[in-house]
Each structure stands twice: as C-alpha cells, then as structure tokens.
Write a structure and sequence with these properties.
Blueprint: H1 4-11, E1 15-19, H2 21-25, E2 56-61, E3 70-72, E4 75-81, E5 86-93, E6 99-106, E7 123-125, E8 128-132, E9 137-141, E10 148-153, H3 154-157, E11 172-174, E12 177-181, E13 185-189, E14 195-199
Antiparallel strand pairs: 1-2, 3-4, 4-5, 5-6, 7-8, 8-9, 9-10, 11-12, 12-13, 13-14
Length: about 210
C-alpha cells in the first residue's frame, strides 16, 4: 500500500504534517520510493488504512520545497528553502518533530512555474547522508550529527549546464556508487565523490 506518512508531507510544501507515527516506523524509508523502490510499505497488524481516522501527531515548518521525507531509525530527514537565499537540511525526531540538527547553505530558489525550493529527496546510507539542492549542490553529511563531510557542484563535476528548471532527481545508492541524474546519468564513488562513469542521454535536461 502507499506509505501515507509520505503522502501527508507531499501535500504540504512548507510544513511536515505527520499522522500515525508507528506506520512509518514499521520499516526504514531511507531513500526516495522507500525500501522496496515502489513507494509501498508492508501492512502491519492493526494498521488503520482509513486516513480519515488518523490524527495529526505534529507539524513542523521546514521551508519551501517539494522534497518527500526519508527516515532512519527514530530520525526523519527533509529539506526546504527560506525563499530568500538559503536551503536547509533538517533532521527531526520522528516521534515529536523536535529538530535534532539543521544544516543551512547558500542556494538558489529557482521558482520557475512553481514556488521553487528543493525537489530531490535525501538519501541515508549507513553513516552518510546525501542531498542534492535545486541549484545542483551535492552534499554528503553525517546523518547523526549533520557534520558536513564534503560537497560538490554537479555542474562542475559533470561539466554540464544547470537546467532552467534546476536539479530535481533524487540520488540512488547502489553498492559503492552514488547514481545521479543531472542531464547525463553518472555513477560517483559514494565515499570520495570521484566520477566513475557517465552516460549521455538522447535529450539533455533544459
């Protein structure tokens, strides 16, 4: 079935609305589309599938954006833009919505045909967190503390122009590679960010 926790977040571009916390705790949701890569989670005994019966557990303003949420253990991750000059990655307590840490950085809003802000979901891979901003910054942080490990600019790393709509594809981790779609599709070493391969596509993003 669809993960309803993600549905609630998607409908609120400037706030997280979270109902029935136990539903998300049933499984890790550490990447876009979840553990089965199909946006579903396995039904648990006693799970209430009627969303009208849910109650809002908490809300949290995180900024403007269209990213979904990811979870790992008792932590929830997402990102948003302050609509002026900064994008922020946030880590929240999954039960209370308390901010455990934040990491802000200069980034463009890119409000073309919508409100702007980040589109790509954060990915958690053991002791590393990967995030891609709307203007193409690739960041690697410690998911427990928010400590910045390294950062790159995809336009420089892959020698591509920034699409007029910005970067919106969520990264994918597979074995020792981080796969990014940034016009061409590329495989990076997930530990040091070095380019392993790059595949041109028939039509580049514009």
């Amino acid at each position: 079935m669809l993960n309803p926790g993600l549905k609630h977040c998607w409908l609120a571009t400037s706030a997280i609305i979270f109902g029935l916390v136990s539903a998300v705790q049933a499984s890790e949701w550490s990447t876009w589309l979840g553990p089965h890569e199909d946006n579903t989670t396995r039904t648990q005994d006693g799970f209430e599938s009627d969303l009208s019966q849910w109650n809002v557990a908490w809300t949290k303003q995180v900024g403007r954006g269209y990213s979904s949420i990811t979870t790992s253990g008792k932590r929830l991750y997402t990102n948003g833009h302050d609509q002026t000059s900064q994008e922020t990655i946030v880590c929240l307590d999954i039960q209370t919505g308390e901010a455990l840490w934040t990491h802000s950085f200069e980034a463009d809003l890119i409000p073309r045909a919508h409100g702007g802000g980040p589109n790509a979901s954060i990915v958690i891979d053991n002791d590393r967190l990967y995030a891609i901003s709307k203007d193409g910054q690739l960041l690697c942080l410690r998911p427990e503390t928010g400590q910045l490990i390294r950062e790159y600019q995809l336009t420089d790393l892959l020698e591509v122009d920034r699409p007029s709509w910005g970067f919106g594809a969520s990264p994918i981790v597979t074995e020792e590679q981080l796969i990014v779609s940034a016009g061409p599709v590329a495989g990076l070493n997930k530990f040091n960010g070095k380019l392993i391969w790059m595949k041109e596509v028939e039509r580049r993003a514009s």
